[in-house]
Every structure is written in structure tokens, then in C-alpha cells.
Specification:
Elements: E1 7-11, E2 14-19, H1 26-31, E3 54-57, H2 70-74, H3 85-95, E4 100-101, E5 105-108, E6 111-112, E7 120-125, E8 134-140, E9 156-162, E10 169-178, E11 184-193, E12 200-201, E13 204-205, E14 208-211, E15 220-228, E16 231-238, E17 243-249, E18 261-266, E19 269-270, E20 273-274, E21 283-292, E22 295-297, E23 306-311, E24 321-327, E25 334-341
Parallel strand pairs: 4-17
Antiparallel strand pairs: 1-2, 2-3, 3-17, 5-14, 6-19, 7-18, 7-23, 8-15, 8-21, 9-10, 9-18, 10-11, 11-14, 12-13, 15-16, 16-17, 19-20, 21-22, 21-25, 23-24, 24-25
């Protein structure tokens, strides 16, 4: 969090799953294309988090995104194909190379992003003359290592819209965590804060894990978030394994985007308090783009947008860690953040 601040419809070849205030069985959701209703209270069921207004898009296998009309693409939360050759090549990689469309499971976590704790590094870009309503990030899923043996550690790589001057924030990315036994844990997630659609766990802001992409360290990841007229579209693609997920949250109120966009690596808060250790994620090189739902471009090169903060382990100099911008933004939208033990 920045500045801490089913029904199934099948029509005209369109397949989308609308999750409203009805509660839907996750097993049925994943296995059938018939409307299934369940009265069970999913607020206590792990893996069954369905936010009102959540719409999951699953394009049919015979839909060719490379030739589909703009209106057909929009039905599945996919932006239109750009005309510029370089951007069209990017679009084909991001959207045209999908091998499998995932029907995800959504699970509330105990993690939240809270940059106010000086626990992050990355690029924040604010252009009040041309407010962004779309943010795109490419990066390689990093490995996660514990800086201290047998101690859990956490890190998140994400992109976001909003968050300036305590404004609401819509964000999404990947986790790179390590558990107390040393095993790594990797997933994609989204979080919305300070709107009527704020994601919460026990009354506290919380990220929502999106399972099914099966992203692993070394995979090339693509995350695309767009906002327009109360709807936030999320799109994640593991370009390495070909899995993709597309969904939206509708009916958002309270989001007033000043145009701020973000590409961040961060130590999350756990259960409302800063995680003791940030996972050693090595380094993350972003390719950053921002703009409107129909087009994106690289941010303007300026060192004033590069930001870094120390990430400390409560003053213990033996295990202090640092996330910092190790390579500044260049003209092709690339910059790098790195992890370091600076004790």
C-alpha cells in the first residue's frame, strides 16, 4: 500500500464468470460451465475469496487474439492491438502467445504493501498533465532466499495505479517468499486500498493471492492494470509457461487517479506489522510502461522519479537489508532494483 496512506454468462461466443454477492462453489467454478450456486459462507473457507464485482474472463480456445476485433478483445478484458510495429510486437508477446487461460482461485493473505514504512525501492512516476490510467510491467520472477537461516522472509514485486498524496491504490504483482523451513513460495496477487472495494483480512488491508498461474523463479512475467469508469482490469501472463489470467473488479468508487504509476520491490507487512526480514530476491529489472487503456509508452527518463529506501530489521545491524535502485531508468523503460545486506 503506497503512502499509507455466478453466475456464468455464455452469449455470442463470450465466456465470462461474474462473481456478485452470490457465493459460488470454487470446485464447480473450476470444473463446469453451468451456473452453480451455493449457500455456504465462504468468508471462512480458505481459497474461496470472491469479491463482489469480480469478473473472470476465459476466452474460448478457438478465439484468435491476433485477428479478433477490438470489441471481441474488450469482452475478455484485453486491450486493442496497437498499430505501431514495436508496440504491436510487445502486444503479441503479452497477449498473443497465451497457451492456457487460467480459471484462478482467489485467497486472502495476511500480507499487505505499505510503502510508508520505508521498506521499498523502485520507480514512481507522476504526470499531472497527462494522468495515467494504465500501468504495465515486465520482469523476471526472482528467487527468494532467507537472509537468516530458518526464518521466514518476504518480498513483493508489483506495479500500481494511484497512491499519490494518500490517494487510493490499485496494484498487482508477484510474491517471492521463503518459509521457515527454507522453501520458496511464489504467486501472483492483487490489492485495492482506500476504495469501497478495499481488500481486507480481519478488517486490515490485505493482498489477494491469485492461484493457477504456476509462476516459478526465472519465468518472465507480464502484469497489466487498467482503470476506467469504476472498473479495474487485471491481466497477468507468465510468458515462459504460457499461462495467463484476466479478470476485473467492477463498481469501484472512491478511486481518484492523479496519474501516479509505480513499479516497486517491497517488503510486505504481515498481519499489519512490518515483516522482520525481507527475502533476498537478488535483483529485479523492470521494463516499465504507462499511459491509457488503449496505449502505453515508456516513462520520461528523469532521476527525480527513482526512489529507494532502506529496509531494516528493527535496528539489528547484523541482519539489516536494503532494497535500492541499482540501475536507473533508461530510454527503453528499463531500471533495476537490488537486494543487499548492508550490515
Amino acid at each position: 500500500m503506497k503512502n499509507a496512506t455466478r453466475k456464468l454468462i455464455v452469449a455470442s461466443g463470450v465466456t465470462c464468470i461474474i462473481i456478485s454477492s452470490l457465493t459460488i462453489s470454487q470446485n464447480s467454478f473450476a470444473q463446469t460451465e453451468k451456473m452453480v450456486q451455493s449457500k455456504r459462507d465462504t468468508s471462512t473457507v480458505s481459497g474461496d475469496y470472491f469479491q463482489p464485482g469480480l469478473v473472470v474472463y476465459v476466452p474460448p480456445q478457438n478465439l484468435d487474439l491476433l485477428t479478433a476485433s477490438d470489441s471481441k478483445l474488450a469482452q475478455y478484458g484485453i486491450p486493442s492491438r496497437p498499430s505501431a510495429p514495436s508496440k504491436l510486437a510487445e502486444w503479441k508477446q503479452a497477449f498473443g502467445s497465451v497457451k492456457h487461460w487460467v480459471r484462478p482461485t482467489f485467497t486472502l493473505t495476511n500480507e499487505t504493501m505499505d510503502e510508508s514504512d520505508e521498506n521499498w525501492s523502485g520507480l514512481t512516476f507522476l504526470n499531472l498533465n497527462s494522468p495515467a490510467s494504465r500501468v504495465v510491467g515486465w520482469w523476471t520472477q526472482p528467487y527468494a532466499y532467507a537472509p537468516t537461516q530458518d526464518q521466514p522472509a518476504y518480498s513483493a514485486t508489483w506495479v500500481g495505479l494511484g497512491g499519490a498524496v494518500d490517494e487510493p491504490l490499485i496494484q498487482g504483482g508477484t510474491f517471492s517468499n521463503v518459509n521457515s523451513g527454507g522453501g520458496g513460495s511464489y504467486n501472483v496477487w492483487y490489492e485495492i486500498v482506500q476504495t469501497n472495494k478495499q481488500t481486507e483480512q480481519n478488517g486490515q488491508p490485505a493482498a489477494v493471492a491469485v492461484s493457477g498461474l504456476n509462476n516459478q523463479p526465472g519465468d518472465q512475467m507480464y502484469c497489466d492494470i487498467r482503470y476506467s469508469n469504476g472498473t479495474a482490469n487485471f491481466y497477468y501472463h507468465d510468458i515462459t509457461n504460457g499461462n495467463a489470467v484476466s479478470f476485473s473488479i467492477t463498481g469501484i468508487t472512491g478511486f481518484s487517479n492523479y496519474g501516479d504509476v509505480d513499479w516497486i520491490t517491497e517488503r510486505p507487512d504481515i498481519n499489519g506489522a512490518p515483516a522482520k526480514y525481507m527475502a533476498d530476491y537478488g535483483s529485479v529489472t523492470f521494463t516499465a510502461e504507462e499511459g491509457t487503456p488503449s496505449s502505453v509508452s515508456y516513462p520520461t527518463v528523469s532521476s527525480q522519479y527513482d526512489t529507494y529506501y532502506y529496509v531494516t530489521e528493527n535496528g539489528n545491524s547484523n541482519t539489516d537489508t536494503l532494497s535500492y535502485v541499482s540501475s536507473h531508468l533508461n530510454s527503453t523503460g528499463n531500471f533495476t532494483t537490488s537486494w543487499k545486506n548492508y550490515s
